[in-house]
Specification:
Helix content is 24%, strand content 30%. The chain has 413 residues and is of the alpha/beta class. The protein binds flavin-adenine dinucleotide (FAD).
Length: 413
Amino acid sequence: MKFDVVIVGAGHGGAQVAVMLRTQKFEGSIAIVGEEPELPYERPPLSKEYFAGEKEFERIQLRPAKYWDEREVTMLLGERVVSVDPVGHIVTTDDGKAIGYGKLVWATGGRPRMLSIPGGDLPGVQGVRTRADADAMKAASESARQIVVIGGGYIGLEAAAVLTKAGKKVVLLEALDRVLARVAGVELSRFYEKEHRDHGVDLRLGVCIDAIEGESRATGVQLSNGEVIPADLVIVGIGIVPAVEPLLAAGAEGGNGVLVDRFCKTSLPNIYAIGDCAAHENAFAEGATIRLESVQNANDQANVVAKGILGYESPYHAIPWFWSNQYDLKLQTAGLSTGHDQAVLRGDPAARSFSIVYLKAGRVIAIDCVNATKDYVQGRMIVTAGLVAPFEKIADTEISLKTLLPHETQRAE
Ligand code: FAD
C-alpha cells in the first residue's frame, strides 16, 4: 500500500490538508490514517452543542462520507500509526499494516492530560477529546447528582456551563488563583468566575487535589486540606499531551510537540506536522516557539502544507483566533495576550457585552470580546496592524476600533 500523500490523524488539520489539496486540483493519491473510528468531525462542539445534546453527530462531521469518496481520499480509520521509517518512507499501524508515503503529514493532535494521583485512572474520571469521551461524559452525567470538573480552562468551563444549564450540581476546581490563567487577562478571568458562580457553579480556586476516591469507580475528590468532595463523575480538563511519540522516535526534533519551520516541515525529510502537535515559531508570540490548540491554527497550517506539496510554498503567518461559548456568552479572541503589560476595557462587563484590548509596550497584541462581534472583527485588524493608539481612544466605545488605524491600513482592509 503506497500513497503520494499520507496524512496521520483524521482531525481538523488532517482533513483540511486533503480538502485543500483536492480543491487545488492535486491529482496524486491521498490517504488519511485515523485512530478514531469516525470520519473527521468538529471537536469544539464536544464540550458545547454536542455535549448539550443540541447537535447530532452527523451535524458536526466536517464533510459527509460522499465527499471523501468522490474526491478519492482513502480513509483508513480505527488505525493508529505506531512507527515511522523516514528512510524507507513507510508508516506502520498498530495492526501491522505498512503504508508507503511520498509526503507524510503528521496531524495527530494530543491526548487529554490526566491526573497522576492515586485514583486518577478510575472509571468515572473522564478526559475530553473525542466523540467517545463526550458520549461517555454525556451518559455518566445523566444519572449523576454531583459532578466535579477539574481545570478552569475553556473545556472545563464549557462543560460546567452545559451541566449547570442541565440542572446538575457542579463543583469546579482550579489549581491556580484564577480561571483561564494561561490564555486571558485577569479581568476576563474575574468576569467568567462571577458568571459561573451566578449560575450556581461551586467554583474553587487555588485548590490542590490529592486523590480521586472510589473502589471500582470514582466517588469523590480528595483535596489536600482533607476535604472530600462527593462526585458521581469527574471531568478532567487540564490540557493535552501532544501525540508525537512515533515521530520523535523516528528522529524528529521536538519535545513538547514536534518542531516545525515556517513551512510546517519537521527536521525529517518529506514529513510535515500541523495543528495541536506542531511546535512552531509564531510571529504573534514575538517569534517564541509555541503550540497553539485551535481550529484556526490547524486549518491554517494545513493550508500551508497543502501549498508546499503543490509546489508554491508560503510561510505560516496567520493571526491566532479562538472562540468559546458558555451560557449565553460568546467569547471571541484574536491575537495572543501572553506577556501584555496593559489591558484596556471597552464597555461594561455588567452589561455582558464588552472587550478587553491587550497591549505590550504600547502596541495592541490581542483582544478578547464577550458578546461584542463588531469589536472582534475590527479587533483582528488592529491586532494584525499592531496598533499604537491612546489608551482613552481604545477604551471609548463611541469610537470604532478600525477608525484608530492609519488611513492606508483601513483602505487595505
Ligand atoms: P485533532 O483534531 O485532535 O485530530 C487529531 C486526530 O489524530 C485525532 O482523531 C486522533 O485520534 C488522531 N491520532 C492521534 N495519534 C494518532 C496516530 N498515531 N495514528 C493515527 N491517528 C492518530 N478550538 C477552537 O478553536 N475553538 C474552540 O471552541 C475549541 N473547543 C474545543 C473543545 C474541545 C472539547 C476540544 C477537545 C478541543 C477544542 N478546541 C477548540 C481545540 C481544537 O479542537 C483543536 O485545536 C483541533 O482539533 C486541532 O486539530 P488537529 O488536527 O491538530 O488535532
